[in-house]
Amino acid sequence: ALPWPALCLYVRMISRVGPSFRSGALVYDEIPQTQPALAALAAAGLAEFCQELDPQEAGRLFTLAELRSAFPELAVDPGTRRKPGMLAALEASPLPPEELLQRLSGLRGERVVRPLGAAVVEVFQLLFFGNRYQGLTDFVLSDLGLTRYYPYTMDREQRLFRCRPELDEYLDCGRFADRYELWLVERGESPENLPALAAEMLAFSPRYPAGGERWQRLCNRVARDLEREGELSLALSMYARSGLHPSRERSARVLERCQQLRRAHQLCTEIVAAPRCEAERDAARRMLPRLQRKLGLEPAARREQFPVATVTLPVGEQGVERAAAELLAQTWSSVHYVENSLMNGLFGLAF
After folding, report:
1. Which of 10, 191, 308, 347 lies 20 to 30 A from 21 at CA?
2. Confidence tier at 238 by pLDDT (50, 70, 90)
3. pLDDT at 15 over 90
């Protein structure tokens, strides 16, 4: 129900990296007058004018020259000649956040505004795309016909979410992933503590299938970094929450590293008996002889044994391969003589 300029401005702000913006920086060709559009958004509850500002957000919105001009009493310090030093001085100053905003807004008579409803837009995008990494840019490219997607049938049976709690759980899992990615980027400088994050993840139990596989992959990644950090007990707990490879293989390696050889041997035996994938089975087979030697057990033979059947065929006009195929067809449900075409065809598809 809002005017068209207000709608355009909301989409512009919600698409940009925020969360807040200087009103003077919101200049677009399709919006001739920004102030009436901002007023309409604020009246509708889709935007708000900030009443205070913290130093870090001020550093993102304003230049060093503007900061030094607004706070001349801090600019006399030689350490404020660079922006990090200026922001540190603002952090240490007793100025309240509202005064900080008043001084900066008074430079050009601008106001600081932020869009509201970002969480609702996030839900809309998730429902539209079925993932968290595509957004309004992808929507616009699709709407313009520059990017084409397969026209999947979107009936109730194919929906990613069956109920609102399942959607909320998916978003909660995504926030854990965001915190982990932040830790990966900043590492030692990140305020995020990996063991603390892992403890929170262990207390979280997803119940719905929508994000199950993504959650298990995240558990594997966090557990692997816990290994590297030396948090072996916590890493084992995280691997235990995952049903995806290589959680069991890594668990066996951690158990061996912790000298819990019998548990590692038992786990490798279980993997060989019922592997989740070929890579997991091969890793367990490589580990078993070493564990058996450490436990004083007789290592099992590593060479794989295959069943062999021998038959004698009469000499005929057709080749031995076709004669063997006809013989096997008497007991097997389906037999096809393909010479080398099967393996070459599979290689071609894979390559």
Report:
1. 191
2. very high
3. no
Please state whether the predicted TM-score (pTM) of the whole model is above 0.70: no
The two tokens of residue 191 are: 């305020």
Residue 211 in contact with residue 160, Cβ under 8 Å? no
Q: What is the 3-state secondary structure (H, E, C) of the chain?
A: CCCHHHHHHHHHHHHCCCCCEEHHHCCECCECCHHHHHHHHHHHCCEEECCCCCHHHHHHHCCHHHHHHHCHHHHCCHHHHCHHHHHHHHHHCCCCHHHHHHHHHCCCCCCEEEECCHHHHHHHHHHHHCCCCCCHHHHHHHHCCCCCCCCCCCCHHHCCCCCHHHHHHHHHHHHHHHHHHHHHHHHHHCCCCHHHHHHHHHHCCCCCCCCHHHHHHHHHHHHHHHHHCCCHHHHHHHHHCCCCCCHHHHHHHHHHHCCCHHHHHHHHHHHHHCCCCHHHHHHHHHHHHHHHHHCCCCCCCCCCCCCCCCCCCCCCCCCHHHHHHHHHCCCCCCCCCCCCHHHHHHHHHHC
Closest CA to 325 of 334, 317, 316: 334
